[in-house]
Amino acid sequence: MRIVLFGPPGAGKGTQARLLEERHSLTQIATGDIIREAMKNETPVGKEAKSYVEKGELVPDSVVRKLAEQAIADQDFDDFVLDGYPRTTQQAEWLTAFLEENDAPLHAVPSLHVPDDVIVDRLSKRRMHKETGDTYHLDHNPPPADVDDDMIIQRDDDRPETVRNRLAVYRDETEPLEEYYRERDLLVVVNGVGDIEDVHGRILDALEQAQTSARAE
Ligand code: ADP
Ligand code: ADP
Question: Where along the chain do its domains lie?
């Protein structure tokens, strides 16, 4: 199955993509994780991306395109969940063309809907394991007791000023993609508020629904 998990920063895409990976053998392809790894290793892509990520801006389309296409090809064009890609119309058009050329169209685009006040709470209390990239939330999903406190950090771009900019960028550049995928009959809106397990269940229902309607055609 090939899916794009869509939603604003902090909607729970990464959390849910990891559950789909662990339990349903879909590989998570998260451009944000790939970019952070490149920044940590100070590769040419990482150096180019740094100033954009730090300001909460999008990394240029052409840079992210190469990273995403490489990861999808490495995955033999199947059994993946894209998390954080595409984020612009240009990226969405490239993705559609790239997948079509490889006979691998998307099956569904679950879109996590979460109100802004919940997003701000989630991002301000998000914490990350600096080695594994595992994501936690101080109240709802705290780091396990056996994890060393020193390994748990706040992402620089989760600080309030940057969060505000990321949300504005999302509204301007990324949110219009909902319409792009709705027009292509791929979009399934999923309520992203509630327990992580409940949201996971809703995503599975959405994927089931997408498969049933594809079979009926
Ligand atoms: P979030 O978890 O808040 O949705 P990500 O970890 O997906 O954030 O992304 C972090 C940052 O990496 C983004 O703010 C942006 O600078 C960059 N980035 C990630 N994916 C993309 C993309 N598809 N296009 C452009 N920039 C991206
Ligand atoms: P995204 O990848 O969309 O930016 P994350 O998966 O990183 O979002 O989640 C953002 C924050 O919200 C993290 O701290 C995560 O632990 C927390 N979170 C994710 N899903 C839920 C949920 N259903 N309820 C409460 N907190 C959640």
Answer: 2-26+79-216
pLDDT tens digits, the chain, 217 residues: what are they?
999 999 999 999 999 999 999 999 999 999 999 999 999 999 999 999 999 999 999 999 999 999 999 999 999 999 999 999 999 999 999 999 999 999 999 999 999 999 999 999 999 999 999 999 999 999 999 999 999 999 999 999 999 889 999 999 999 999 999 999 999 999 999 999 999 999 999 999 999 988 787 777 7
Spatial separation of the C-alpha atoms in residues 85 and 174, rounded to whole Å: 10
What architecture is domain 2-26+79-216?
3-Layer(aba) Sandwich (3.40)
User: CA-CA distance, 114 to 170, in Å (whole number)?
Assistant: 13
Question: Does the C-beta of 9 come closer than 6 Å to ligand 2?
Answer: yes
Residue tagged active-site, from 2, 122, 126, 127:
126
**Quick check: is 166 catalytic?**
yes
Tell me the sheet residues that pair with 30.
Answer: 83
pTM: 0.96
List the residue whose alpha carbon is closest to atom 12 of ligand 1.
Answer: 32
